[in-house]
Amino acid sequence: MAVNGFRLMTFALATLLAMLFAPLAQAQLPAPGGQPNIRAALVAESDRPAAGGVVALAFEMKPAPGWHGYWANPGDAGLGMRLKWTLPPGVTVSPLRYPVPQRLIVAGLMNYVYEADYAQLVTLDVPVGLAPGTSLPIRVQADWLACTDEICVPERAELALDLVVGDGIVDAARRGRFDAWRMALPRPLGGEALFEAKAGKLRLAIPIPASAEVGETYFFPLTEGAIDYAAPQAVRRKGDTVFVEAALRGGAPAALDGVLAIGGGRGLALHARPGAVDAAAFATAAPLNAGEPADVAGLPATVLLALGAALLGGLLLNIMPCVFPIISLKALSLIRAGGDERSARIEALAYTGGVVLTCLLLGGLLLALRAGGELVGWAFQLQDPRIILLLLVVVLAIALNLAGLFEIGSIAGGERLAQQGGAAGAFWAGALAAFVATPCSGPFMATALGAALVLPWPAALAVFGGLGIGLALPFLLIAFVPALRRRMPKPGAWMGRFRRILSIPMFITALGLAWVLGRQSGVDGLALGLSAALAVGLALWWAGRRQWTGGGRGWLPMVPALALALAALVLLPHVAVPVENGGVPGDERFSERRLAALQAEGRPVFVYFTADWCVTCKVNEKAVLQRRRVVDAFAQRNVAVLVGDWTQGDATISRFLERHGRSGVPLYLYYGPGEDPQALPQLLTIDMVLKAIDRS
């Protein structure tokens, strides 16, 4: 408990305040129609139970959108249902049985919850010898906690059933409802599980036949305080055993009860006793879950693989339209430097330092936010319209500089490089290149960044640093390999023309950023952003004119221009612009509930996740997903298309991406009828999509 003591104390205080002011809270946050935030109903499987028999009762719970209820063990915070029964003489009731829960992290706290409709079951024992027609009034006071991501409200219901002793017959419709609810309950394991606590870890060995299908797996502990709920679990399988490794919260428990979720809403109820767990078998077992933490024995290989993928992914970022002009500009500065090898290397190292430091800062901030419970991924900063506006102004300034409107030595770099004065400009050029490259995602990056989010933080930062080195690698090679530098063209008039050509992709990038700003902040935000960009552009034009005429104080107009840009950043609205469909005819907004419904219908489903600032996403949509061959194939095979828009961030999408080992978009999944999802590459072709559809 000491690990999360502060967070638990904070939650307890918030819950106490919610209880004290529950009527006010409910008045402020009513569910649709003025109902409780989680509606409860008590239902009997048979209204006429037989004497000496049993009858199942269900608490049917219906959370309002955005609200959730809790499992028996709520996790780091929350409260399960509490019941006070008033029963006829001789009638007894079993403990409450819960369906397999879901995971939800809020403010760094792991919650075991239900975000959709669910039912909790009990069994009522009717005494022997009661005469037919005997009335059985069942009364129960139910208390539970209803929460959103921001507030919790204690709720209560006085529920009643009036049963009559009879023949115990159950009608078909009601039996079907109860059978569906029973299917959501965990099944008994049917074997003995063992656990071993050692070196701060608790390792479970659970017997499950190798032939049994197991999907996304997670251990929900019923024994409270045994493990650190928020810490990641390593789940592996070898032969007839599934291994689970979790972080201990305190000392080793005397016994361990819980539910092993095995995907698809299925679970196994288990009781584990202390015993030896085969460490060698665990170390050689295959991971079950995508993106799960690597264990220490396999950590070096995992880190090396992620580093290699990060290097290659960063290298490929150099061909992106917003990055290529910056590296080309630095290459031009090397050409101007001629044979000054020392200056070239100093500038290359400074550029690399700017790239790597920016990647480390972004990666470190990402890890810190996720450790605090924020569900964010790579390029998270671009979900903030203020960052988009800042990038718009900076990219426009670079485009105007490349076009020749004005000159800044620290950007052009050529004049100062020969005098060893270009290191500062190279550093900031590298930092800018890394920052504007974050919307881009391509081959190898998904593997690298997905691994970074589950590795220990030093290894994760090494992966982010590897991404930066990959991005800076071409410039390093040019600076440190004389043979490459000698093959570069000689300085000449062509350099001026080439530099102006490089302004074109930067202007296109600025136009794209303006479009994203409009999507995130609406027309008012776009007007503010364009006003700031116009003011900075006019000030740079004035500065350029003063440079050409030799006048002084040419940078004075930048003061009011920057003040206007700062005011725009402060006043910029962050509104929820309605998300449009991705352009595939008939597509729908993604939700896990809709995905499950489509799968239950037996329909094939194509799911893709995108963002307006994701260059790769937009290229794939225009070049592949919106092409007639693909659209016709979707229609002919009755493929449902779901699109998840991550432009402004979405916790549901973030959790879904994380479960599939991704830290950002794009992600493309195809669900064949009755099949596990097939992940498609991040760079799509029409044939890839058609081949995936044809296989099902």
From TrEMBL:
<feature type="transmembrane region" description="Helical">
    <location>
        <begin position="387"/>
        <end position="406"/>
    </location>
</feature>
<dbReference type="Pfam" id="PF02683">
    <property type="entry name" value="DsbD_TM"/>
</dbReference>
<keyword id="KW-1133">Transmembrane helix</keyword>
<dbReference type="GO" id="GO:0005886">
    <property type="term" value="C:plasma membrane"/>
</dbReference>
<protein>
    <recommendedName>
        <fullName>Thioredoxin domain-containing protein</fullName>
    </recommendedName>
</protein>
<dbReference type="InterPro" id="IPR035671">
    <property type="entry name" value="DsbD_gamma"/>
</dbReference>
<dbReference type="InterPro" id="IPR013766">
    <property type="entry name" value="Thioredoxin_domain"/>
</dbReference>
<keyword id="KW-0732">Signal</keyword>
<feature type="domain" description="Thioredoxin">
    <location>
        <begin position="566"/>
        <end position="696"/>
    </location>
</feature>
<dbReference type="GO" id="GO:0045454">
    <property type="term" value="P:cell redox homeostasis"/>
</dbReference>
<feature type="transmembrane region" description="Helical">
    <location>
        <begin position="303"/>
        <end position="327"/>
    </location>
</feature>
<dbReference type="InterPro" id="IPR028250">
    <property type="entry name" value="DsbDN"/>
</dbReference>
<dbReference type="InterPro" id="IPR036249">
    <property type="entry name" value="Thioredoxin-like_sf"/>
</dbReference>
<keyword id="KW-0472">Membrane</keyword>
<feature type="transmembrane region" description="Helical">
    <location>
        <begin position="459"/>
        <end position="481"/>
    </location>
</feature>
<dbReference type="Pfam" id="PF13899">
    <property type="entry name" value="Thioredoxin_7"/>
</dbReference>
<keyword id="KW-1003">Cell membrane</keyword>
<dbReference type="InterPro" id="IPR017937">
    <property type="entry name" value="Thioredoxin_CS"/>
</dbReference>
<feature type="signal peptide">
    <location>
        <begin position="1"/>
        <end position="27"/>
    </location>
</feature>
<feature type="transmembrane region" description="Helical">
    <location>
        <begin position="348"/>
        <end position="367"/>
    </location>
</feature>
<keyword id="KW-0676">Redox-active center</keyword>
<dbReference type="InterPro" id="IPR003834">
    <property type="entry name" value="Cyt_c_assmbl_TM_dom"/>
</dbReference>
<feature type="transmembrane region" description="Helical">
    <location>
        <begin position="555"/>
        <end position="576"/>
    </location>
</feature>
<feature type="transmembrane region" description="Helical">
    <location>
        <begin position="427"/>
        <end position="453"/>
    </location>
</feature>
<dbReference type="GO" id="GO:0017004">
    <property type="term" value="P:cytochrome complex assembly"/>
</dbReference>
<feature type="transmembrane region" description="Helical">
    <location>
        <begin position="501"/>
        <end position="519"/>
    </location>
</feature>
<keyword id="KW-0201">Cytochrome c-type biogenesis</keyword>
<dbReference type="Pfam" id="PF11412">
    <property type="entry name" value="DsbD_N"/>
</dbReference>
<feature type="transmembrane region" description="Helical">
    <location>
        <begin position="525"/>
        <end position="543"/>
    </location>
</feature>
<dbReference type="GO" id="GO:0015035">
    <property type="term" value="F:protein-disulfide reductase activity"/>
</dbReference>
<keyword id="KW-0812">Transmembrane</keyword>
